[in-house]
Amino acid sequence: MNLSTSQANHHSFILTGIPGMPDKNPWMAFPLGFLYTLTVLGNGTILAVIKVDQSLHEPMYYFLSLLALTDVSLSMSTLPTMLSIFWFNAPEISFDACITQMFFIHGFGVVESGVLVSMAFDRFVAIRDPLRYTSILTHGVIGKIGIAVLTRAFCVVFPVPFLIKRLPFCHSNVLSHSYCLHQDAMRLACVSTLVNSLYGLIIVILTLGLDALIILFSYVLILKMVLSIASRAERLKALNTCLSHICAVLLFYVPLIGVTMIHRFGKHLPPVVHTLMANVYLLLPPVLNPIVYSVRTKQIRRRIIHVFQGRINRA
C-alpha cells in the first residue's frame, strides 16, 4: 500500500489494528463482536425495562436512559472501522469519513460526561430534598438538561473537523488506532498544530475537567448531607442510591485519565499499550454500565428477573 508523503495524494488514512501484529487481527474479531453485542443487548435491556415499567418513570431512570443511549451511540461510532479492520481486513478510511467519525466519537464522549454530571445533580436533589424530588426534576427540566448537554457537545466539537481539514498532511497517513481521533490525526500534519493542540486542551479542561470537578463537588455536598442524617440505616440507604453512579463515573474517568497520561508521558511505551488503553476507554464503559446498574439497582434487577422468569414459564 502506498503511504504517500505528498499532500496531493493524501486523501485517506490507514487505521491500525494490533500494532506490530497484523496477523493477530482476525483473532480480535470475535471478542470485539461479543463486546459490541453485549453493549447493544445490555443497554437495550435497560431502555426496554425503563420504558415498560411505569414505576421506573422517575428522574433517576430517565437520566439512566440518556446514559444508555449515549453508550450505544459511542460504541456505534467506533463499530464501522473496527469491523472493517478486524473482520474484513480493510484498514483504509477516506479523509472525510475519518473526520466524521472523529466528530461523533469526541461528541458522544462530551455528551457522556455531561450526562454523568446530570446524574450527580439528580442524586444531590434526591438526597437534599427527597419530598420535592419529582417536582423539581420534572419532565420539562430533564428535557432541557438533555438538550443543554447535547448542545454543549455539538458546540465544542463542531470546530474540530475544520481545524483538522485546514492542515496539510504530508507525512505518513498511518494512524495509531482502529478509529479516528483528533490528537492522533493532527500529529501527521506537516505544519504547526499549536492551534489544534491548544483548542483540544481548552476543550478537555472546560468540559471533561470541569465536569469531573462538578461531580466531585456534588459528592462532597452529598456526603456532608448524608453524615448529618441521624439514622445509620438511612445513611447507608442514601449512599447506596449513589453507588451505581459512582461506578459509572469511575468507569468513564479512570480510563480517560489513563489514556491522557499515556498519551502525554508514555511515548516510550510499546504502541500496543496505547491501543489497549484507547480501546478500554471507548469499549469498557458501554459494556459494564448496564451490568453495574442491573446488579446495583433493585428495581431494574427485579424487572429483568421477572421478564426472564416469565419467558421460562411460558416455555
Automatic annotation (TrEMBL):
**Which superkingdom, per the lineage?**
Eukaryota
- Which segments constitute the G-protein coupled receptors family 1 profile domain? 42-293
Q: Which Gene3D superfamilies does the protein's record reference?
A: Rhodopsin 7-helix transmembrane proteins (1.20.1070.10)
Is Transmembrane helix set as a keyword in this record?
A: yes
From the UniProt record, report the name of the gene that encodes this protein: LOC113191356
Q: What is this protein called?
A: Olfactory receptor
One Pfam family for this entry, by name? 7tm_4
Q: According to its UniProt record, where is this protein located?
A: Cell membrane; Membrane
What molecular function terms (GO) are annotated for this protein? G protein-coupled receptor activity; olfactory receptor activity
Record flagged with keyword Transmembrane helix: yes
Q: Which family does it belong to?
A: Belongs to the G-protein coupled receptor 1 family.
UniProt GO BP: cellular response to lipid
Q: Which residues cross the membrane?
A: 27-50, 62-87, 99-121, 141-164, 198-222, 243-266, 272-293
Q: How does it sit in the membrane?
A: Multi-pass membrane protein
The UniProt keyword set, sorted, is: Cell membrane, G-protein coupled receptor, Membrane, Olfaction, Receptor, Sensory transduction, Transducer, Transmembrane, Transmembrane helix
Q: Which GO terms describe its cellular component?
A: plasma membrane
